[in-house]
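[Solved] Which block belongs to which protein?

Original post:
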Amino acid sequence: MVLRWFGLVCILVGWTACSSTPVKSALHPSKKPSGSSINYVGLKIPPMPSKHETEMGYLLEPEGLGKYAIEVVNYGSKKIVWMGRLLYNDAKGKAHWKIIATLPPRPLPEGYQFSSGNCLSHGKPQPEIVAIVKTEDKYRLTQIEKAWKANPEKEAFEELPLQGIHCINERWNRL
């Protein structure tokens, strides 16, 4: 009789173990699927992640919030825009950053580029605006595909309506 109960318990435990959702273990974390993107938020720089190169960057110093940087980073054929918060300057004066927000990595449409730090909204300079603009040989770029506002307080990029936004073309009329 005890042997039957033991056998029944073994069968039930075995069936339950096979049919239940596996528990994730700290000893055996699940692997990310291959080809998945890096989670940049929380990343501390330096060092720059492998195969990533800064295309452009600039500082934001919102009153009372510290120092932040917006960077456009090349990663293969994709562009990443991230916002970093200054953690400290080391003994050699080198800045150390923590990434607090990103726009997803994306290839840009042919003839478009990121413009950041030089955009205006309804004629007012807004250095926190990042936009995807059509590359043209004119001073004022008005063909905007998408635009976001870097919000250091919320640690996020907020999508903006395109009406009234244009960016200054820093490459215009340069030899």
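(Second protein starts here: sequence line, then its structure tokens.)
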Amino acid sequence: MDDTTRTELEAAAFRRLVAHLQERTDVQNIDLMNLAGFCRNCLSKWYLAAAEERGVPMTDPAAREAVYGMPYGEWKQRYQREASAEQVTAFKTASAGH
């Protein structure tokens, strides 16, 4: 596979992942962190870092909006729930080794 095709496939997979996470507003970031070690915020930070590496002007809020599909504050207000004690404990346990 040539580099251009690989990049196109990777970009398509990333777009599908972002669309999936935008559709699955029931999945909380803390659950993603506990199960996979990354969340929507991580994706937005990676997106911002990639833009910065290429000299593309971007802000943190713009990167978050690209991942969340709306301003971050709006997403939090609409979909973010208070983390349960179990979620917080699992997060602390998972984060302890990092």
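Accepted answer:
You had them paired correctly. Confirming on the second one: The longest helix spans residues 3-23.
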